[in-house]
Design brief:
Layout: H1 3-19, H2 27-36, H3 48-52, H4 56-61, H5 71-87, H6 92-112, E1 119-122, E2 125-128, H7 137-161, H8 165-188
Antiparallel strand pairs: 1-2
This protein binds zinc ion.
The site of zinc ion has 5 residues, from helix 6.
């Protein structure tokens, strides 16, 4: 799937959790989920995250859709955050960050499971795959629906909280960046 679809889907799951009252709303949490939703693609040298973090040499040595595209790293991420929480006297924030990382990571695996290459959830077993090819009209339909749902929930959160001017400007900035990225991605169809 395209990187933008992963980010938007991860953000949607986060904002649903906020609306259900499971997680607090914070602008920085969008960034954490967004980054976590891209981490599994470190195993692909051409992916957005590998290029951004200049990890091409490491990426080339990893098997694409291998261990990193399984449930184990998500568990490890949560364990890491849990240990951090232990050392910080079980601060709620540390546990929330762990949950956010898992949401982002798992959202990536869910989307890639819809793809013909699929995901081996319990690597190297439990392969799940679907018919939606990367950059296809099927993926664009998912991207459109997910973005639409995200926008509605996002702006209803913003209005509900009657937030201050700075947060509103930040929210608008994020929306503009996501829209621009989506536009660029649809035009260039990069993986
Ligand atoms: Zn992937």
């Amino acid at each position: 799937m395209m990187w933008v679809t992963h980010v938007v889907f991860g953000l949607l799951l986060y904002i649903i959790a906020v609306h259900l009252g499971f997680l607090p709303y914070e602008t920085s949490y969008f960034v954490i989920v967004g980054i976590a939703s891209l981490i599994p693609d470190i195993d692909h040298p051409g992916s957005k995250i590998s290029k951004l973090l200049r990890l091409k040499k490491i990426s080339e040595k990893l098997t694409h859709r291998g261990f990193l595209h399984s449930a184990y790293p998500a568990l490890l991420l949560f364990l890491g955050a849990y240990l951090l929480a232990c050392y910080s006297g079980f601060s709620e924030k540390a546990i929330t960050v762990g949950v956010l990382l898992v949401i982002g990571y798992v959202s990536h695996l869910v989307l890639d499971s819809l793809n013909p290459t699929g995901v081996k959830w319990i690597y190297p077993r439990a392969k799940v795959r679907g018919p939606i090819k990367t950059g296809s009209y099927g993926e664009l339909a998912i991207l459109f629906i997910v973005s639409y749902a995200l926008s509605i929930l996002f702006f209803s959160s913003v209005l509900r909280m009657l937030i201050n001017k700075d947060t509103l400007l930040m929210a608008l900035g994020i929306s503009i960046i996501i829209s621009a990225a989506m536009g660029g991605e649809v035009i260039f169809r990069r993986s």
